[in-house]
Amino acid sequence: MTDQKTQLTLSDFSATTLDGRPQDLSAYDGQVVLVVNTASECGLTPQFEGLEKLWQECRDQGLVVLGFPCNQFGGQEPGEAEQIGEFCQRNYGVSFPMFDKVEVNGDGAHPLFQWLRQEKGGLLGSKIKWNFTKFLVGRDGRVIDRYAPTAAPDSLAGDIEKALAES
Question: Is 42 known to be catalytic?
């Protein structure tokens, strides 16, 4: 029996965009991907600005940031898709891809987050601790690292540059 952990990649998953369209994550094959669970009413919400800056600075080299709103932590993402999109764009100029609200922990966790947690555990084992937990995925679709919610987006720049340099 083969180890399932080594078989799956980001390309094996799909999600629904904030505007309701299904999106195969294979669309990001060959790119470095930063997956983030987000919230609009969190003390860490200003990280949207840093995430957008990372994306703007590195997207031509192959970085994409994917935001996944989640309401599992303190009810800090109560809005519907349209409200979330408007908030992110209006307050932080977010133009990177945003997806429909998901669960990241528990039985209802989105399959993408089940896989990410399995690949890289954190302080609480595989459970995601809070909003703005970040996962860096390499061009090969495999998880490189996981970052705490409090890790500022610009603190990931070195790891992102290293991942972008790998072919």
Answer: yes
